[in-house]
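Async update (no meeting this week)

Hi team, since we skipped the sync, here's where things stand on the single-chain job. The sequence we agreed to prioritize is pasted below, unchanged from the tracker. I ran it this morning and attached the output directly underneath so nobody has to dig for it. Comments welcome in thread, and please keep replies under the output.
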Amino acid sequence: MNNNSLIEKELQQQSSRPDQTGREFVSIAADVRLGKNVRLSKFINLYGCEIGDETKIGAFVEIQKNATVGKRCKISSHTFICEGVEIEDGVFIGHGVTFINDSYPRAVNGDGSLQTEKDWKVERTLVKRGASIGSGATILSNVVIGENAIIGAGSVVTRDVPAQTIVAGNPARVLRLISQESETLK
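Output:
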């Protein structure tokens, strides 16, 4: 039995009550690559993404195609991880965090026709190992959040965040460096 089959069986055991349409309370596409011992809450939508071993994903989370989440991450409820986002190992994502993958989003082209995937290019975002993003933060595209950086709750990250740095605000600004002493207290 492959790993996706095991996850589906576990989800069926966890959620025996179908919604009004007869489907379970989760949506996991067949092309999702799940690592070992991934813990999934109800009311999630995963498609075309990769989730690393021992990662925990909360309720009401959507992770789109071509997004990756590393090992031993915690993705809290109501978070949106769009295409083009790479999250390395050991990252914490708070409640209601939103990632953006387009600097100039538009619904229609100049001629009024609805845009398709051909009309724009995915802009990448990288969250490095051990970073922590507080609840309600918005992470714009084309940024790198450095190793062990901390993003304050409600912040809007518009540019790269150095490793071992605490940032907060709108736009997020450096508050201070994380000292080695405070890291060893954890």
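Quick observations from my side:
The radius of gyration is 18 Å.
Residues 13-23 have pLDDT under 50 and may be disordered.
Reply here if anything looks off.
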